[in-house]
Amino acid sequence: MTASEEPRRGFWRENSLTLTFGIAFLVVLVGQAVTGHAEFNEQMTVDGLQSLTFADYLASSDFAVDVTENWQSEFLQFFLYIFGTVYLVQRGSPESKKIHEAGIESDRKQRVGQHARPDSPRWAGTGDWRQTLYARSLGTVMGTLFILSWLAQSITGTAAYNDQRLRQFEDPVSWADYVATPDFWNRTLQNWQSELLAVAAMVVLSIYLRQRGSPESKPVGAAHAATGIEG
After folding, report:
1. What is the 3-state composition of the chain as percent helix, strand, coil, each rounded to the nearest 5?
2. DSSP state letter for 138
3. What is the pLDDT of residues 132-142, one digit of tens each?
4. How many other C-beta atoms can be found within 10 angstroms of the C-beta atom of residue 161?
5. Residues whose CB falls within 8 Å of the CB of residue 159, separated by 6 or more in sequence, listed in order
6. Torsion sign over Cα 124, 122, 216, 146
7. Residue 34, CB half-sphere, CA atoms under 13 Å: how many?
């Protein structure tokens, strides 16, 4: 039976990975909102101030900055990993390309220009600026999402920081001043270091450890030195 003749398994089955993580994301986001609202109101009570309703908390800068500071670190992780794995390799890791394949690879291997196939994306075979743009579209979009979420974090962080200062009868600061504060960089760097550690751990541990059936792991019987081989 060819790929085109394989029976369709239904929308939910064919998209189960995206749907499962998407639903899990929404569940966790709701959980964060509920617990964040409770924590925020506890602090407001300690400060002798009026509590916020759940709806008001969702629209607050405190909730927004907590969300966006995590988003920007995740997009940074993928942006760096996507571009880094073009040229950087790790012997024995399925997260790495084979050692001799470092670089942007040939047009034939990448199926671009005259090597594009009938089922290739249309821009892959154009041979002009559209091909160049599409060939870097994933990293470009991830980088753009990182910058946008970083800006969102800095803007909402400024508002949350100023709300705290006003509650303490202190003057608010500008966006530029806030971006230079330890508060901003503490929020930012504690997320960056955790994401970079997680990537490094995945790259190294996948050399020696296995997870049967996962494309993120080498086949169980693959040699430790086997590089760029996925299960």
Report:
1. 65, 0, 35
2. H
3. 999 999 999 99
4. 21
5. 61, 64, 65
6. positive
7. 6
Spacing of C-alpha 203 from chain mean position: 16
The sign of the dihedral angle between the CA atoms of 105, 106, 112, 116 is negative
pTM value? Answer: 0.84
- Residue 218: both structure tokens together: 């080498």
Query: Which residue bears the tokens 């940074």?
Result: 76
Cα dihedral 19/21/22/27 (nearest 10)? 120
Q: Which pLDDT tens digit goes with each residue over 151-170?
A: 999 999 999 999 888 888 89
Tell me the C-alpha to C-alpha distance, in Å, between residue 83 and each of 67, 73, 96, 145. 25, 16, 12, 15
Please list the alpha-helical segments (H only) found in 61-181: 61-87, 107-110, 129-134, 137-167, 175-179
218, HSE (Cβ side, Cα atoms, 13 Å)? 26
Residue extents of the structural domains in the chain: 13-59, 64-231
Task: Show Cβ contacts of residue 95 under 8 Å, excluding neighbours closer than 6 positions.
Answer: 85, 202, 203, 206, 216
Task: Sort 223 into a burial class: Cβ within 10 Å, 0-12 / 13-18 / 19+.
Answer: exposed
